[in-house]
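Protein 1 of 2
SEQ + STRUCT:
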Amino acid sequence: GRHANQVISLCSHIPGTSHYSSYIRIPISVNVRGACFRNTPAYVYNMHKLKEIASDKAYLQYCVKATDYFQSDEAVIKDIAAKIAKRYPDDSYLKVLAVHKFVARNLFYDYDELQAKDRQDDSSLAVVKRRHTTCRGYVSLCVSLLRAMNIPAQQLACYLAKPGQMIDIEH
């Protein structure tokens, strides 16, 4: 049958504001029998990058250490992480989901900063104070909170697809 290329756009509105916490565009193909996801060049590249991630013990130990950017040893980060972890003492998977939920609900995406020539500090401490950021700030806070819980986490370079182009971003 004949296919039509479409895009599903997902947004998450922050109640009481005019801001959205996330925005995802998912390319799909649609025909009379249904819809299916399309493998874009960005998706294929990102999946390849995921397969390259090391998982040996030394690398995992590195992925729980605090850095200047992933400030998991700072009191405010440790306090937030402890509050999240307390609800799920024996389940790392639920802790990861709770970190994602916390970050998504407490930050909003700053489209103006994304377009600006001079970027603001997007380390985890700066993001906690400012409460708005771009992709890198979301990632820095998630990674820092997970590392504060002793859950290995690392930022991954990947691509974001826009119509007709691919943009290098960090996740």
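Protein 2 of 2
SEQ + STRUCT:
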Amino acid sequence: LDDLIQDLGGRHVACEAGLARGTERAVHAATALARHAQRDPARVAHEHRLDERAVVQALRVALPRTAIIHHCANEVTEAGPRGAKRQAILVGMGVHAGFADLMVICDARVLFLELKAPKGRLRPDQEAFRDAVLAQGFGWALVRSLDDALDALADHGFTTRIAPAPRRPAP
């Protein structure tokens, strides 16, 4: 736990015994992501974007046990006719173009998180989804780092077990 606190760059983690859903193992991924946040954001090679799994694991550490963190599998990366067929099946099952990467539900609050690389841009369908979600009164945030994810939780009123990092005065 001390390593996690140190690695989260001054943020403080409240202890909670018996974390659910394998969260004890998630601490290691959250620690690694926090280390990388001090340098470059963690990325997956195929899209050069923030590592979604590491963010999910960090959110599981930060949020209460009752939180639901859902990855929205919204695209097929397989090329060719087989990929096109699979994408058509998903659309028929209700996949929505531009849907956010993650959805967080906790204590009667809903927050959609769109994960992007530092220079990544929203596609038009993602902008339309963001606008529709915000118009309906739900939370939405663009996340480029672990700190962005944790700040989005705080900005949208989520209770976490991680206190904000102390702000350093400007030089």
